[in-house]
């Protein structure tokens, strides 16, 4: 994206709603050189530029967004408009020649690596600005690797910006990738401000669009959960939950509102004055809720009424389109507090704290208008938590797809769902293929089994 286009987008954003999170022009560190780290404002604009890139589309939002393609891959959706790419993901036949999320995640990582190197070398920045921006860059790198390792398995671990060095990297075992994720997030926790900061990363704000200390803590809690480090997951989730001045659950009608108190990190839309999910799900109605998803809802669940459309075809409606010129009322939610309660519930259940686990689970259920769960069976409690995640996080960031894999239920669930989607399920399909052109350029890369 050119600088001119960024400026035009900024003007549009101000016209749409007077949002004040990104008033400085974004800067690309890959093309900007050392001069971008000569002033606080230019350095801050580097990370702003990365959030712009994420908000434009790709893995975060739109037709390549993980909320859409992972929902197609899992058992969440019934596909109505069969574009070639959508049908491939829906039938679990992902195309190795059409894997933009692989490319974009590594672009974001290169962006973050370049920022980390430039910030580290700079001697001209205010220390608090430098510290915050280093924390943001490490956070984003960890965020990208979390999704790469969960979507593709072993992936090349690139922690420098040198293109020649990275272009020959082989796949790194996922355990090592996870260790880098944890290291980055632990460092980010120490570097990031606990408050939310404006675009100059010095003044505090009510806008929740730059990651703070608690965003890093929340993502670390998720990572520990996926690694089955239950005590660490509980500790980090508790640390976020305890920030009651910043965070609390809100009614189901307000979960996706701009800067609501449940949100830990959001991305402000930059293409339109609402998240692109509103176009995919509500306006275009590309998919509807599948029978598998609908059957997971209990009869009185408020989320079904609030987050699915009315009528005969029930499509996800967590986000809503807005007329041009209208005030922006929703940001794209990336991390939110309810996940922390369900992370802690699962961790506590695995640690044998049944009462604590049920308390967290039932807090989420109460918000949804459901009766409390009461069981002495740990397997039943864990099953109830996963079901709650299914109905809470549908059409959000691929939660269901990743949960099926980490719970080792993917083969059983997809063996039933696959034929109904017109595909034939095989275990290797839980991993997306690496981009075919990268395998040609890098002989050290090996494709995932089956592709």
Automatic annotation (TrEMBL):
One of its GO terms (cellular component) is cell outer membrane. Residues 91-225 form the SusD-like N-terminal domain. InterPro entries: SusD-like_N, SusD_RagB_dom, TPR-like_helical_dom_sf. It holds the Pfam family SusD-like_3. SUPFAM superfamilies: TPR-like. The keyword Nucleotide-binding does not apply. Its main location: membrane. Belongs to the SusD family. This is RagB/SusD family nutrient uptake outer membrane protein. It comes from Chitinophaga tropicalis. The lineage of its organism: Bacteria, Pseudomonadati, Bacteroidota, Chitinophagia, Chitinophagales.
